[in-house]
Design goal:
With 202 residues, the protein is of the alpha+beta class. It has six helices and nine strands.
């Protein structure tokens, strides 16, 4: 035991502070590992540029997933604005983070439609992908892979175009393991997401 640590413990005991508390102070800078919620299975989709997009496209980089669709009249605009805010803040913090918006209305959301949508929100497409593809693949990726609900087929006569989907954001590490879920309408949760992403990036 070093003289400094012995002196610190002695001072804590002299002041009537329990030894366990002194130990807590000594280790307070350490943080527990982020939880693991399973691996995202491989998928094969297409991004806004018409290029193939798979799980391996994100290998080695932490990423955040969201599920939206361009004709959504309710939650999706808010979720997309939140994603843009995350992109800006991650860049300011020099946190290496990629964003992925999965369309749950793939028949309408073709690559050109997604590219226009991305431009409307000022997305930096260097670190943000908007993806579409086979509807079954997207639903499987959402529900079985990322464990986010995504149901329904577009019907303009129904509320929300007949599509329901979760609005939580999902943090995935560079190995494809889910490390956290964050409510997109909770500022504290979004701040925690940025902190957790920085931990993964480091």
């Amino acid at each position: 035991m070093t003289w400094f640590r012995a002196a610190a413990i002695g001072a804590a005991l002299t002041a009537g502070v329990p030894f366990a508390a002194a130990g807590f102070v000594a280790g307070c800078h350490s943080q527990p590992d982020l939880p693991s919620f399973g691996a995202v299975p491989d998928f094969s989709l297409t991004d806004q540029a018409g290029k193939p997009f798979t799980r391996d496209s994100l290998k080695g980089t932490a990423w955040v997933a969201a599920f939206v669709f361009t004709r959504c009249p309710s939650a999706c605009p808010r979720v997309t604005r939140v994603m843009r805010d995350l992109q800006v803040k991650a860049a300011r913090r020099n946190t290496k983070l990629h964003l992925v918006s999965f369309s749950v209305d793939p028949e309408f959301d073709t690559p050109p439609v997604l590219e226009r949508y991305a431009n409307e929100y000022g997305a930096d497409l260097a670190t943000w992908s908007f993806v579409t593809g086979d509807a079954d693949t997207i639903q499987k990726t959402a529900e079985q892979g990322l464990k986010i609900a995504a149901q329904g087929k577009a019907d303009p006569t129904k509320a929300d175009f007949g599509i329901t989907h979760g609005t939580q954001l999902v943090l995935v590490d560079g190995r494809g393991t889910i490390r956290g879920y964050y409510a997109s309408n909770d500022d504290a949760a979004l701040a925690r997401l940025l902190d957790d992403a920085a931990r993964l990036a480091s």
